[in-house]
Please model this.
Amino acid sequence: MSSVLTEEGPAVDGGREAVALVIDADGHCSEPWQELGNWMPPEFANKGPIEYDGRIVWEDHVVLRATGRDPGPRGPYADTVNTAGRPGQEDPVQRLRDMDYEGIDVAVIFGALTMFAVNGLEDCRLAAAACRGFNNWLLEYMSADPMRLKGVGLIPCQDSARAAEEIEWLSDHRAGGMVSAVMPTNVYGINLGDRRFDPIYEAAQSVGMPLSVHPQTMHWGSYGVSGVAGAGCERLDKYSYVHALSFPVEAMIALMHQVGEGVFDRYPSLKVGYMEGGCGWLPFWTGRLDEHFEKLRPQWPHCERRPSEIIRSGQVALTCEPEEADIPYVLETLGSGIVMYASDYPHWDSECPHSVEKLVAVNGMTDSSREAVLGMNAMQWFGLQPSEVPSRSVWTEHRKRDHTWS
Model:
């Protein structure tokens, strides 16, 4: 398949030319969560999550289970689905080989179990220590090639002051690959437009770091006390339903609440991305939010602009599923810079090693829109400079299929 990407762009960054790259805006690693204490401050070294009776327990909370209501990942799966993951989720050298195989130049990497549980912990000091432990481990992982491996750090959102400090720490470690900080879609069931999170937004805006809202399955804890809520998940006992519902709907709730409660108006330079929920819902949701903004205007006192204006402003972005047929429509209606390619490597629903090819094959996209979604949008969104990324593209020049993907 011939490439749609060009090999050269305008000269920027001290004369270094910008190259059109394939940038995976949402892939995952698998941190050694059972050994997380090795990267945490000594006083918290024995307070990491544990596995007990087929469940993952942390701070006496069941944060992941495979049975009952709202189950975590479980089968049966279709025969074509890879449930074993990839060695590269733990070994960065193997990940780089997989990136070469698929044609991915830069991967923006999110965590796994720690990320999905840490913002539900009651002990704010433990949460902060776990975030720093994960971030220390991720820096080691990215050290294999910080030009190609970029990280999304964890912040303890249940303690906004500590979270703001961790954002500053992440910013100080940009040279090691840190480019964003992740937020859950809610903390203890409290939605993200709540003023208690303003110190997080202020810190992110101050250092120029985009925030990445990442949904999850699992509904646990008690409102205002612990846990993370998943929309509708407590009513469902099939993982298929839980996963299909929670990722897009939780992203929709998070976006609505941040827009409606004035987060983007209070912090006009803040950028928030909504990851792994797809993008096809956004035009519908934008129109619906506009309608409610207009007809129920007294209930939106903190929102100074129409939701559609905020969504089109450059403050909002989403990742897409590589095969989404609605990508061209989303770009046409809400702007060419709003959607970023994501592989979701190495999870069961990932299209790897064919995710780039599937996006390239989406009907109705122009060469320029493919180039934007495959990499240029992420380049701009994460503020990546040409000196921070490779100067040549494995996709345009050619992929190295020197190992078997099985």
About this structure: The first helix runs from residue 92 to 102. The two ends are 21 Å apart (CA to CA).
